[in-house]
């Protein structure tokens, strides 16, 4: 006999956990499954920038207090190119801000909030497939860590299971999605050192892009553009500092021991289908963005806010309108974020085939942004995030 729940959520990342949290506040029960262990989930290193709307949702719904006490409010970023830095002032242009608060901290807060609320949250349980997507009782077939098969029947199944989504198969079959790969990646490091700058620096240099970000007063996060095939052990610490330093002329980086290295591939993807019957995709299962605009998790949060309203109407008021409209409504923001991430990426990175014309055009584009009130305002508006329900 299958177990029963109202909403079966596959994936205990930020999207799945936040959805269970928001549904609980509407009185809607859910079960959350994830194939990973809690430790694996909490230690996955991801981006660190939260849009203002994301912070407001986390705070107002009591999913996280620490986002405001531990997270750092940033009212601007710097774009550096052609030997000069240009501050984009979010407060001045759009009266908004972002928060530097790493995604794994958001996850810890969400897990703590869900466990405290008695959420049915199962780690080490791998969803294998979803059956009966077109019926009003879709079913998840999963395996626990002892190899036992379980079946969960729900009113709605949500795939919040990341870019290698299993649920996507039930939603879109082989229909795939819109896809773009980029000819570069980011080499990311975490190091023990004081901050080299008060705000993030996005630097377009003749040697390629670099981003100087932070984590805390003691730990810093930095990235530089590299070939996608680069091995994380390809460089000594000294070489890594030399590369980073050469890409932010004008700033002397504060160096310290590097204790984590990773290579992040750049992909833009939007699934052709986000819903089939009572099975729906959110977050990275439905779309991925390159990390340049820090939109990944923020977009997942926006999907979840829309889906919560849609599930409330469907399951409590028997009104299917918002649920039917969910993919089209979500796609409006998804494509704006896709464009912003693509635009920031192309404006800031050195294309392998770039010639002198391409380089100078890029500098012209950057100047058009930083020397225009409208340009700075567009960047600020997109970076700090559009209203959540739009
Ligand atoms: C990060 O701190 O990890 C980070 C910040 C901004 C980005 C991407 C990543 O655009």
Characterization of this structure:
This protein is an alpha+beta fold and 390 residues long. The protein has a domain at 3-74 and 99-178 and 268-349: 3-Layer(bba) Sandwich (FAD/NAD(P)-binding domain), CATH 3.50.50. 37% of the residues lie in helices and 30% in strands. Strands 1, 2, 8, 9, 10, 11, 17 and 18 form an eight-stranded mixed sheet that branches. Strand 17 (275-276) and strand 18 form a beta hairpin. Helix 1 (14-25) packs parallel to helix 6, helix 1 (14-25) packs parallel to helix 9 and helix 9 packs antiparallel against helix 10 (321-348). The protein starts with a strand and ends in a 6-residue tail after the last helix. P-hydroxybenzoic acid (PHB) binds at residues 47-49, 200, 211, 213, 221, 291-294.
What order do the helices and strands come in, and which of them pair?
Blueprint: E1 3-10, H1 14-25, E2 30-34, H2 38-43, E3 49-51, H3 52-60, H4 66-69, E4 72-74, E5 76-81, E6 84-89, H5 90-94, E7 98-100, H6 103-116, E8 120-123, E9 126-131, E10 139-143, E11 149-159, H7 167-172, E12 177-192, E13 201-205, E14 208-214, E15 219-226, H8 237-247, E16 258-271, E17 275-276, E18 279-281, E19 287-288, H9 296-317, H10 321-348, H11 356-370, H12 373-384
Parallel strand pairs: 1-2, 1-11, 2-8, 5-13, 11-18
Antiparallel strand pairs: 3-7, 4-7, 5-6, 9-10, 10-11, 12-15, 12-16, 13-14, 14-15, 16-19, 17-18
Helix pairs in contact: 1-6, 1-9, 9-10
The site of P-hydroxybenzoic acid (PHB) has 11 residues, from strand 14.
């Amino acid at each position: 006999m299958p177990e029963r729940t109202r909403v079966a959520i596959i994936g205990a990342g930020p999207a799945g956990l936040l959805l269970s949290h928001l549904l609980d506040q509407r009185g809607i029960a859910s079960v959350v499954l994830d194939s990973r262990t809690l430790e694996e989930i909490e230690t996955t290193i991801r981006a660190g920038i939260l849009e203002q709307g994301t912070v407001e949702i986390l705070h107002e719904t009591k999913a996280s207090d620490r986002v405001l006490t531990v997270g750092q409010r940033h009212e601007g970023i710097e774009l550096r190119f052609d030997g000069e830095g240009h501050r984009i002032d979010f407060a001045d242009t759009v009266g908004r801000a972002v928060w530097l608060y790493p995604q794994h901290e958001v996850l810890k807060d969400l897990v703590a909030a869900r466990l405290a609320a008695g959420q049915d949250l199962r780690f080490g349980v791998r969803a294998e497939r979803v059956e009966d997507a077109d019926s009003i009782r879709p079913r998840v077939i999963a395996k626990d860590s002892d190899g036992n098969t379980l079946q969960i029947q729900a009113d709605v199944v949500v795939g919040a299971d990341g870019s290698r989504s299993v649920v996507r198969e039930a939603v879109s079959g082989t229909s795939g999605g819109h896809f773009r790969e980029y000819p570069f990646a980011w080499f990311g490091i975490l190091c023990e050192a004081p901050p080299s700058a008060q705000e993030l620096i996005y630097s377009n240099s003749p040697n390629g892009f670099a981003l100087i970000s932070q984590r805390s007063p003691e730990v810093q996060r930095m990235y530089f553009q590299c070939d996608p095939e680069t091995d994380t052990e390809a460089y000594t610490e000294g070489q890594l500092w030399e590369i980073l330093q050469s890409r932010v002329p004008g700033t002397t980086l504060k160096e310290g021991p590097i204790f984590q290295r990773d290579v992040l591939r750049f992909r833009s993807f939007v699934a052709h289908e986000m819903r089939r019957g009572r099975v729906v995709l959110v977050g990275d299962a439905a779309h991925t963005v390159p990390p340049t605009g820090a939109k990944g998790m923020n977009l997942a949060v926006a999907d979840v806010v829309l889906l919560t309203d849609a599930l409330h109407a469907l399951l409590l008021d028997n009104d299917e309108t918002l649920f039917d409209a969910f993919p089209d409504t979500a796609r409006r923001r998804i494509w704006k974020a896709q464009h912003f991430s693509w635009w920031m990426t192309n404006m800031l990175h050195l294309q392998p085939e770039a010639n002198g014309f391409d380089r100078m055009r890029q500098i012209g584009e950057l100047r058009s942004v930083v020397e225009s009130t409208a340009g700075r305002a567009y960047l600020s508006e997109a970076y700090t995030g559009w209203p959540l329900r739009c």
